[in-house]
From TrEMBL:
Domain of life according to the entry: Bacteria
GO BP: response to stress
Gene Ontology molecular function terms on file: DNA-binding transcription factor activity
SMART domains: HTH_MARR (SM00347)
UniProt feature coiled coil, ranges: none
Source organism of the structure: Mycolicibacterium hodleri
Domain HTH marR-type: 17-148
Signal peptide: none
Entry protein name: MarR family transcriptional regulator
PROSITE patterns: HTH_MARR_2
Length: 150
């Protein structure tokens, strides 16, 4: 059983921000570990999970858009997409406006996997944040700002 250790007090603003970044990274690893521990979830790499989550939130997106938005190398994105297609989590359809490309969508199988993961994530964060909607909204706002930063 590990004992929680209180973080050392930040000496300045920059140090406090670095500590926050460290905490965010640790939380991301914890959430990732929590996702993978579900018996009913098909394990995915971090890259595959990011692609799947993006396609789920943006049905009909083009592969090039996903790679650009996730700031991924084309080769890494292509490899992740191949895995997701092989596992029948993502399917392509012809783009009616441009026959040279395709539109992506998640399958029903992927949606079930995503629903289990999102439910588990909500439970994990509820244990930490409780019902205080202002804390939830504040944390979400901060993370959204980081996500959309160029």
């Amino acid at each position: 059983m590990s004992r929680a250790v209180a973080p050392a007090p930040a000496t300045d603003h920059s140090s406090a921000l670095a500590d926050l970044a460290d905490a965010i990274m640790h939380a991301a690893r914890l959430i990732r570990s929590w996702d993978q521990s579900a018996e009913t979830v098909v394990p995915l790499s971090t890259v595959e999970a990011a692609v799947l989550e993006y396609v789920d939130r943006h049905p009909g997106c083009r592969p090039s858009d996903v790679a650009r938005e996730l700031r991924m190398r084309t080769s890494n994105f292509s490899a992740a997409l191949r895995v997701l297609e092989k596992q029948e989590f993502v399917e392509r359809s012809d783009d009616p406006s441009d026959r040279r490309t395709a539109n992506l969508a998640v399958t029903a199988l992927a949606k079930r996997n995503i629903d289990v993961i999102r439910s588990r994530r909500a439970a994990l964060l509820a244990a930490a944040l409780g019902d205080d909607r202002s804390r939830i909204d504040g944390a979400r706002e901060l993370l959204d700002q980081l996500r959309h930063r160029e």
